[in-house]
Amino acid sequence: MMRRHSFPNSMKTQSIEYPKKKNKKLIKVNQYVFVKKIGLGASSKVYLCYDTTKQQFFAGKRIRLNEICRIGTRVQQVEREIKMLRKLEHNNIISMVEALYSKENSLACIIQDWADCGSLDSVLKTGRHFTEGQLATIFSQVVNGLLYLHSTGNAHRDIKPSNVLLLSNGTVKIGDLGIGHSFQSADAVVGSPAYQAPEMFGYSDDEDYEEEESCLDPIKEDVWSLGVTLFESIFGRIPFSGTNAYEVAKSARENQLTFDFSISEDLSDLLKGMLNLNPERRLSMDEVSRHSFFGKAVPKAELALPKPSYPIISAESEMQNIVADVCDEEYSFMQSDIIPSFTLTLPQRALSRS
Fold first, then answer.
1. Which of 69, 213, 243, 318 is deepest in the core (most CB within 10 A)?
2. What pLDDT, on a 0 to 100 scale, did the predictor assign at position 331?
3. Average pLDDT in the 201-212 region?
4. If we measure between CA atoms, which residue out of 178, 170, 113 comes closest to residue 353?
5. Does 158 qualify as catalytic in the annotation?
6. Could you tell me if 96 and 199 lie in one domain?
7. Residue 141 lies in a domain
8. By the 8 A CB rule, do 71 and 344 touch?
């Protein structure tokens, strides 16, 4: 059994000076100093970066285009994320400040809001257990963000604990929209296998549901992924497992949903509704938002998230200065003369990202 920890309601902040590594310069792109790596994606690294103009911290995603250009789908995902973030404006979705590109360094940067308490995944890994009221507060905000996203004609397609971002004021934001796309898109790229809806992988044992690719509902897929994320936040494990997406789908259809310990009737009913194998019987996101479980939500302050520490950047720190162009709405990396054109031949629905 995991050891339980709890954070005090208030924690003193402390400034930490990150020592300068030998022969290691800090990278500064325009006015942004990339101070410390705080995350790692499939094709990018995420840094805490300091805006020397605004004198505040942001999250900066750095992508080496020359390292990913051999895989056209990854370049497309970078462009897709930038285009989506430009259009979205919601308190529960991470906001983009600007996108930068340095041709000389083959470097793209996406500057975003900084979730100063990290992700739900990172908090759960500390051994933190949330009460049902706290979970209702967290997940009601995720649902609000997804309802807004769906209202714009887009789905996320990769909801998981590492993409649920937490702020010290109790606000929750959805991050990483690189997989997401519009309902009308021909792409059917899937995200992390453990969190993907079983119907994505071509099965149906329910005679009342005839699975066809054209019938796949991206909203119901987001509901499933959110259900898996909620389940993991409670029990510390995913409900169905396997070494690949098809094994996870097989496990889901062959094993009943079981709970490791007693939970409230409301929460049990919500999980069963979100993790219904039949997408036609699965709760819609609107039904999820109106579920009685969310009536248990507590004030944001009662999440008692740890206060962040702020690094000090020494005036003596050596820096590599990179001058980058600010990408306007029409900019395309795929049209850049250093990025070749690609003919996509792999079936997109077979691709997965950890």
1. 69
2. 76
3. 53
4. 178
5. yes
6. no
7. yes
8. no
Instruction: Look up the CATH number of the domain holding residue 85.
Output: 3.30.200.20
164 beta partners: 174
Rounded to an integer, what distance in angstroms lies between the CA atom of residue 151 and that of residue 183?
Answer: 11
Exactly one of 158, 187, 206, 286 is catalytic; which is it?
Answer: 158
For residue 207 the two structure tokens come to 């005679």
How is residue 168 written in tokens?
């010290």
Length of the chain counted residue by residue: 354
According to DSSP, residue 41 is labeled -
Joined together, the tokens standing for residue 60 give: 């900066």
Tell me: do 110 and 125 sit in the same domain. no
pLDDT of amino acid 193 = 81
Q: One-letter amino acid identity for 255?
A: N
CATH of the domain at 269: 1.10.510.10
CA–CA separation, 214 and 161 (whole Å): 28
Place of tokens 């507060």: 137
Residues 315 and 211 in one domain: no
Lowest mean pLDDT among 20-29, 154-163, 289-298: 20-29
- If pLDDT is split at 50, 70 and 90, which confidence band does 249 have? confident
pLDDT > 80? residue 66: no
Please check whether residue 41 lies inside any domain of the structure. yes
Q: Which domain holds residue 99?
A: 16-115+309-336
User: Which one, of 201, 215, 176, 196, lies nearest residue 59 by Cα?
Assistant: 176
Residues 156 and 272 in one domain: yes
Alpha helices by DSSP H, listed for 97-208, are: 120-124, 132-151
pLDDT digits 0-9 by tens, 95-144: 999 999 998 988 999 999 999 999 999 999 999 999 999 999 999 999 99
